[in-house]
Amino acid sequence: MQSKPKTDSHKTTPIQVTLAPFWKRLAAWVYDSLAALAVFILALLIGYLVIFIVTLPWMENGLAVSQAIYKNPLWTIYIVACVQYYYVWCWVKGGQTVGMKTWNIKVCKLDGSHLSWKEAYYRSFLSLGGLGNLWSLVDKEKRGWHDFICNSRVVVIPKHLNKQTSPLI
After folding, report:
1. Dist CA 128 CA 134 (whole Å)
2. What pTM does this model have?
């Protein structure tokens, strides 16, 4: 008995897209800063809860213990890592953050596929908190520093298209 080879019935049709202009990137960045703020607050709340539970046995010296923890560079690394993970996870899983979805833009590789975890982390570090997008004002291909180094593009996705399509640049 031979089995039939599996065929992919959900093949995506490439579409022609345009590169995202700076103003759309900026608008998405502003919108995403609100989402990043929400992630920041959630990370703070979870961190405070963990610190409270950990310092509970030393409650009489709890203030000194908690101040020592907050001054620890690992606390800052934890908060930055949580906010960074929001962006990385969105780029890897769907190519769009909340702000990017609102403005119909998407980050992808040249073949239209999503970034890998490694590429998304590089892109996140190299964006310098969004300052890397300023380079898109002078680059003829409208790339930020992080896009240039990671070989990614931010493209405008037409509103009428469903999520099954992948961009062709």
Report:
1. 11
2. 0.78
**138 secondary structure, DSSP code:** T
Q: Which domain holds residue 32?
A: 16-159
The residue type at 111: D
On whether the CB atoms of residues 71 and 60 are closer than 8 A, the answer is: no
Cα–Cα separations (whole angstroms), residue 84 to 20, 32, 40, 72, 133? 22, 12, 10, 19, 16
Q: In total, how many domains does the chain have? A: 1
- Between CA 145 and CA 133 the distance in angstroms is 7
Q: pLDDT (tens digit, 9 = 90+) per residue, 31-88? A: 999 999 999 999 999 988 887 787 777 667 666 766 777 778 898 999 999 999 999 9
Which residue carries 């999520």 as its tokens? Answer: 163
* Structure-block tokens of residue 146: 């992080």
